[in-house]
Amino acid sequence: MKKWLLAAAAGAVLLAGPSAAQQPIVIKFSHVVAEKTPKGQAALKFKEEAEKLLPGKVKVEVYPSSQLFGDAKEMEAIALGDVQMIAPSLSKFDKFTKKIQVFDLPFLFNDTDAIDRFQESAAGKDLLKSMESKGLLGLAFWHNGLKQISANKPLLVPEDAKGLKFRIQASDILAAQFQALGATPQKLAFSEVYQALQTGTVDGQENTWSNIYSQKFHEAQKHITESNHGALDYMVVVNAKWWNGLPQDVRDGLTKAMTIATKTNNDIAERLNKEALEKIKASGTTTVHVLTPAQRAQWQKAMKPVWDKFEGQIGKDLIDAALKSNSAKTN
Ligand code: SIN
Questions:
Q1: Domains and CATH numbers, the chain
Q2: 63, 90, 142, 211: which to mutate for ligand 1, most atoms within 8 A of CB?
Q3: Which residues, 6+ apart, have CB-to-CB distance to 160 below 8 Å?
Q4: Strand, helix or coil at 25?
């Protein structure tokens, strides 16, 4: 009897598992950029804050630079529960919803403040929940900034891009944008871009200053045009089922940590992009061109047909809401 009681007690201890209960929840946060970028820094800030707010309860492992999973694989990994958190560029949700592709429309936003106002608006916040039926829940938007366009020849007017092959993210809108210029788009994972530029698999690319500098794209591109023609921001997403199954106190702590990390990201994004631009200029590898207002108007006109092509899929209301954010007083 005594033996039975002892065995039962031991079993109960194992099942209730004080040791198991003390195991922290491991959150693998995978992303594709370098640590010295807005997203790279914000992911580290999230780890710091989450572990501070939930001591012993969570352990956040951050995997930068496609170390764990690259672009397409990280989407699969979050669905399978191999990672718990990713922060893809908004362009990469193309397969899940066309709504988020509103951010890809060329020359939609005047500046990052406008993007910020749109993300803070009711229409913008709704997008965080727009993929729940597909198992993805958005926790926050993180800024990177506006994209610049590069090649080994000056790109001053749209005709300069004609006949060239450009690397793009996996977005049909971005494909249409380059087709509108008479150029050929090629969808490639971020981790493959440097080599593709170096070997001439593609002639050019579009990205933010911080991504161009941290990936050394400028070393393989003689000319970059400061076109600011499109947005490159992120959505931090989790597997909705995993998130909803977390204890309430853990979800609350992670939500707080995310708010702090988002602020860090958005406070440093513009500065890091400006610093990257200065470093590219100082490197002497690349000429940076600034468009005249007339040249900029030509790019806008050449890319505008993309709006009509995708209006049906994105929704006119959403495009109008985004456009409204260009004036300071929206919401
Ligand atoms: C990123 O900033 O996460 C990568 C964007 C890209 O694929 O160009």
A1: 2-93+127-143+233-271 (3.40.190.170), 148-230+274-324 (3.40.190.170)
A2: 211
A3: 151, 153, 154
A4: strand
The pick from 35, 168, 177, 207 for probing ligand 1's pocket by mutation, whose C-beta has the most ligand atoms within 8 angstroms, reads: 207
Q: Is the pLDDT of residue 167 over 80?
A: yes
SS3 per residue for 282-297: HHCCCEEEECCHHHHH
Residues with CB under 6 A from ligand 1: 32-33, 89, 144, 169, 190, 207, 211
| Residue 63: C-alpha distances to residues 39, 55, 191 (Å) | 12, 21, 14
Query: How much is the pTM?
Result: 0.92
Helix spans in the chain (H):
2-16, 18-22, 38-53, 71-80, 112-120, 122-128, 172-179, 193-199, 209-214, 240-244, 248-283, 293-303, 305-314, 316-324
pLDDT tens for each residue of 191-229: 999 999 999 999 999 999 999 999 999 999 999 999 999
